[in-house]
Design goal:
single chain, 534 residues, FAD/NAD(P)-binding domain, Methane Monooxygenase Hydroxylase, Chain G, domain 1, 3 domains
Amino acid sequence: MTEYSDVLIIGSGVSGLSFALKVAQFSKVTLITKKKKADTATNLAQGGVAAVLSVEDSVEAHIADTLCSGDGICDKNIVRIVTTEGPDRVRELMDLGVRFQLGENGEDFDLGMEGGHSARRVAHATDITGKEIERALIKQIEANPNVTVLEDHLAIDLLIESKARGQERKNGDRCLGAYVLNRITGEVETHYAGVTVLCTGGCGKVYLYTTNPDIATGDGVAMAYRAGAQVANLEFIQFHPTCFFNREAKNFLISEAVRGEGAILINQEGEAFMKKYDPRGDLATRDAVARGIDAEMKRTGTDCVYLDITHKPAEFLRERFPNIYGTCKKYGVDLTQQPIPVVPAAHYMCGGVVVDENGNSSINNLMVLGETACTGLHGANRLASNSLLEAVVFAHRAAKQIKERIEEIRGLERIEIAPWRTGGAEILDESILIKHNWDQLRQLMWDYVGIVRRQKRLDLIQTRLSWMVKEIKEHFYDYLLTPDLVELRNLAVVADLIVQSASLRKESRGLHYIEDYPQKDDQSWLKDTVLQKP
């Protein structure tokens, strides 16, 4: 059975939800999410939304900080668009019910400071900003009759016009929707749409250690690449410097805002060390802090370093960071009395599917928003708390364009789509095959394509990935689909793209540090790394 929507949105983070609310004012929307509505990276975001919301700050300063962090390859036009339009989008979130912290006068925002920023500009809801934004947007979505939300639905592949017609892939191809696996029934559904929007988040689960939720398997980037869309800058994987080092506390990060409020990174001897690695010390950008921690751990042979904020009043810490305080305390660390053990972990994908200033990909009627997109804002290294800002700004711009095109979109020729064919596929009863490849892939990526890279390691993993991708492809078509198999296929594609991109860039810039080429090369590499399936 084929379902039709004006707009099909794949993903339920801040970009997907805010976009859905806007386009639902004039169209019928289907939003699919592979688990539950709130199972998103947005829900884990602690810090906040960076925007110029104070007279003591300026758009020019926000632009300068973003460009500095991006290390030369931000799109300056995009940076200006996002920083200029951002404040209105943050106030719009408040109008939708997001309860940001306000100052003592009850009117102005209580703005936080984070690494890489030259002013306090991070609007937050204590230390659970993402969860609060998600709560408010979901409440609005559930009350909107024009939005159909399908939980436990996992997109498999995009529907592309040339393939539906049995033709060769072409420039200017059109996206027609997606094949979607219903996780409850096990059936593959066909979802036809005038416009398809990918908001599937990042790819943190491609690494062994990550701050990301289990859903972050790079689905959107993998699907778009297989369909022929351009992807870019996938070598720039941001490692959050301070993930809580506790084997029981899965994926829990210690927000950048803790350092913004004065926390100091120390080693096992209690020595502050960041000034040795960067003159900005503990408030350096994330790439510099992650490399500094990595170097200090290797120098001392220890499993972690420590984040010390015990010099701040205990009452202030409990009020400013209630979630972090409570979680650390649950696992035996009282941050008011003792330093927090931390390590870097894979956190954010600065590259993604190439889009223009309105979220359009290189495939017609395929839009990409949020972490899945490469807009040009982040360059080689994302500035802290710019991601939620990017999501709401681009969601607004994309919805505005859809509104202008809605009659044209509804008038497009409908093409017959063949149902998903299982052929002679069998049930895969050897789940160990999937688990083995999943574990090996993540370990290889952690060991060979981490914070510090070497060309020899990249060459080795590229060889290993080639046969792994081939084996997974055989499983994919030989057996009936399961969510694990779909996600493993996507992880393998994204891992391969990350390695390809890292191998191409013969310099060190931002988040990509390779010992064979330790210097920046502005003459040859002041540009994006773009890949497209032949």
